[in-house]
Amino acid sequence: MDRYLGSTLAYAKARGVSADIDALGKSLIQPDITILLLLDEQAQQKRLRARSVTAEDLETLNQNFCQYVLVDCL
């Protein structure tokens, strides 16, 4: 199980990295299984603030990240 492939691709897409990131992801060994843990928004915000996430990161995560994770993983 690769803990980083899915999240790395989702973060890149959410931050507007070129669509070539899809080709890169497909060229790597794909994990056999992906486990996606979902939190309600309140719990998510609490955990992010506890990690001193920047305001820019919060904005990116709120607007784009979750939609890319859900689309790519489901």
Could you explain the architecture of this structure?
This is Thymidylate kinase-like domain-containing protein. Residues 1-59 form the Thymidylate kinase-like domain. The chain has helices spanning 5-14, 20-27, 41-50, 55-73. It has 74 residues and is mostly helical. It has one domain (5-73). The longest helix has 19 residues, at 55-73. It is globular, with a radius of gyration of 13 Å. The model has no long low-confidence stretch (mean pLDDT 72).
Short description:
This is Thymidylate kinase-like domain-containing protein. It contains four helices and no strands. With 74 residues, the protein is an all-alpha fold.
Structural key phrases:
single chain; 74 residues; mainly alpha; 4 helices; globular; Thymidylate kinase-like domain-containing protein
Give the overall average pLDDT: 72
Q: What general form does the structure show?
A: globular
Span between termini: 17 Å
Cα-based radius of gyration, to the nearest Å: 13 Å
Q: What summary fits the major beta sheet?
A: none
Order of helices and strands: HHHH
State the secondary-structure class.
Answer: mainly alpha
How much helical structure, as a percent, in the residues? 55-70%
Whole-number count of domains? 1
The tally of beta strands, per DSSP, is 0
Beta content: under 5%
Which spans of ≥5 residues are poorly predicted at pLDDT below 50? none
Helix count from the secondary structure assignment = 4
Organism: Pseudomonas veronii
InterPro entries: P-loop_NTPase (IPR027417), Thymidylate_kin-like_dom (IPR039430)
Pfam families: Thymidylate_kin
Protein name: Thymidylate kinase-like domain-containing protein
